[in-house]
Design brief:
By secondary structure, the protein is α/β, with parallel strands linked by helices. The chain has 15 helices and 10 strands. It has a single domain, classed as Rossmann fold (3-Layer(aba) Sandwich), CATH 3.40.50. Bound molecules: 2-acetamido-2-deoxy-beta-D-glucopyranose (3 copies). One 2-acetamido-2-deoxy-beta-D-glucopyranose binds next to loops.
């Protein structure tokens, strides 16, 4: 798959013109690997490494138990795909921009928060569960960070060691994983699939505007995840009504997965348009949907069990109760008892808490996308700074 590059022309090298029948060879030997000095991430809980926790209270234990051995701002037992991406470049795991105390941002910053949407919602976090830090707010934060980090650097040594240099902003990798919550937001307001589809163009416009704004601030390398099969997740299966005919062989709800795929098709078109509009940008679209769906639908083949059941949760068909989530406690005889408990072995489970993936699943997903097999253009993560014509 990674070698199906015949329709790509490597702009950065003349050799591609000389031996067009060996584009893979050319890519492997003449295009330098990218050295990203930093990552700036935008998104929702799929890539939140502490944003929501910093502003609205820490994710409770047993989140973080597998890798960090304590809560670490992530809705998972361990690391997220973005952590494996950062690690692959030798960068520290990203700190949330909102982690204002003692944070070293030289390797980048994370603007994602759990519950974030592309479009601002008209409800509060406590009303609906959606974060007020929507993608436009994440961009305001990034803009502020860009300006103020440079002002801080001029103040002296300590700040120079904690803030990125100006040139880092054009050399960094900009990563995105957002959209899932925009889709569920409509359904949770009892909208029909047609009503949800009807606002997808608005999502695309707003998403596209943010990519352009970052480009105008110097951003050049963009790595964009599409949205996953939300119809396979317990929090959707448990809450939204579907008929038996709407359940596929994997046990997932087809209407919600179809709307996710509709969103992804539009996103792919937007990315193609952005490549035309932003002549110096290298934009990679990554089909995370297919990776996650194949993991869930062929779990045992990949070494996992109970693909639709939460590891951490409390009761029901999916071990998921939205009023008693992972980490929740009850008081009995004056004592606090943890009822949202982890399963025994999260390393063989896919779904962590009914909404998010386990570290084992995240690692599996990362391993599939890192080599470019699911990317358009089909280039590996380490080449994501190179622009290809098609
Ligand atoms: C919020 O309300 C405004 C004004 O009515 C509307 O334009 C916007 O689409 C709404 N946003 C969402 C996510 O429903
Ligand atoms: C900040 O992180 C960078 C890269 O990880 C490191 O080189 C630098 O020493 C750190 N600065 C401080 C003050 O710890
Ligand atoms: C959606 O419909 C359900 C069932 O009829 C109802 O209980 C719920 O209040 C509705 N939600 C909204 C946001 O209208």
């Amino acid at each position: 798959m990674a070698c199906c590059l015949s329709r790509l022309v490597v702009l950065t090298t003349l050799l591609a013109v000389i031996i067009p029948s060996f584009p893979c060879l050319v890519l492997a030997f003449t295009t330098a690997q990218c050295e990203f000095p930093a990552i700036f991430n935008f998104g929702d809980s799929n890539s939140d490494t502490g944003g929501l926790s910093a502003a609205f209270g820490q994710a409770p234990p047993p989140n973080g138990e597998t890798y960090f051995h304590a809560p670490a701002g992530r809705y998972s037992d361990g690391r997220l795909v973005i952590d494996f991406i950062a690690g692959s470049f030798g960068l520290p795991y990203l700190s949330a921009y909102l982690d204002s105390v003692g944070t070293n941002f030289t390797g980048g910053a994370n603007f994602a928060t759990a519950g974030s949407t592309i479009r601002p919602q008209n409800t509060t976090l406590s009303q609906s569960g959606y974060s007020p830090i929507s993608l436009n707010v994440q961009f305001y934060e990034f803009n502020d960070f860009h300006q103020r980090s440079q002002v801080a650097r001029r103040k002296g040594v300590v700040w120079q060691e904690l803030m990125p240099k100006e040139d880092v902003f054009s050399r960094a990798l900009y990563t995105f994983d957002i959209g899932q919550n925009d889709l569920t937001a409509g359904y949770f307001l009892n909208m029909s699939t047609d009503q949800v589809k009807a606002y997808v163009p608005d999502l695309m416009n707003q998403f596209s505007t943010i990519i352009k704004n970052i480009y105008w601030q110097g951003g050049r390398s963009f790595w964009i995840h599409n949205t996953g099969p939300v119809g396979c997740l317990p929090y959707v299966l448990d809450r939204l009504l579907i008929t038996a005919a709407q359940v596929d062989r994997a046990g997932c709800a087809t209407p919600f997965n179809e709307v996710a795929q509709y969103f992804n098709q539009r996103l792919k078109e937007v990315v193609a348009q952005l490549r035309k509009d932003l002549p110096l940008a290298a934009i990679t679209y990554v089909d995370v949907y297919s990776v996650k769906y194949s993991l869930i639908s062929q779990a045992s083949k990949h070494g996992f069990v109970l693909p639709l059941v939460s590891c951490c949760g409390h009761g029901g068909k999916y071990n998921f109760n939205r009023h008693m989530g992972c980490g929740s406690k009850i008081t009995r005889d004056g004592k606090q008892i943890l009822v949202g408990k982890s399963c025994k072995d999260p390393s063989v489970r896919i779904i962590w808490d009914g909404v998010h993936y386990t570290e084992a699943a995240n690692k599996w997903i990362y391993d599939r996308i890192v080599d470019g097999s699911y990317s358009d253009p089909p280039i590996p993560l380490k080449m994501a700074c190179h622009r290809f014509a098609n």
